[in-house]
Here is the input.
Amino acid sequence: MIVFRVPCRTLYRRVWENKKARNLAHKSAQNLRHTVEKELVRWITCLTIIGYPPRYPTLKEMTEEVRKRRVKEINNDGIEYPKIGKEWVQQFLRRHPELAGVTPQSIDATRVKDMSYEHLQQWFHDLEEVIAEYNIKSENIYNMDETGFAIEEKQSGRCIINAQIHERFQAKPGRQEWVSVVEYVCAD
Here is the structure.
C-alpha cells in the first residue's frame, strides 16, 4: 500500500499469518495497560497546556505509583512484578509519537495563568475598534516588545510535552533580576 507507506509484506503477515503489530505483540510483557498509558498521555497533555510539563523523573515516579497500585489489586499470591526500568520513559515516548522530550523555555507563572484565548481575542477586538474609531493608518501603528534575560537563572531540565500542542513553555515561580531588550516594528 503505497498510499500509507506500509510495505506489502507487512500487510501480508498481518492478514494471512495473523501477526500482531510490534506494539501489540509485547502487550503482555508491559507493566502498564494500554488504557493506563493513554491516561498518562492525557495527563502530560493537560500539564503541557497549563505550562507545567512533567520531567522524566516525575513521569517515572507517577508510573511507578500506578504500577504499585495495580500490583496491590491483582497480587494475592505474593508474586513479584518488575519495577519500571531505566529505559521505560524512552520506550514510552517511542510508543506515543505525539509526545516529545524537550528542554522547555521558561515563562513567568503569572503570564501562563493570565493568558487565555478569550483574553487575546478580546484584546484584538478592542484594537480593531480603536483603529477604526480614530482612523489610524498602518504607518502610524508600531509594535514594541520587551524581552529579557534572567540573571543567574539555571536552564531547566528536559521534560515531556505533547508536541501537537506546540507549547514549550514551563512556568517558573518567583521574581528574578532581568536585563531587558526592547525592540519595535512599524505595521507598514
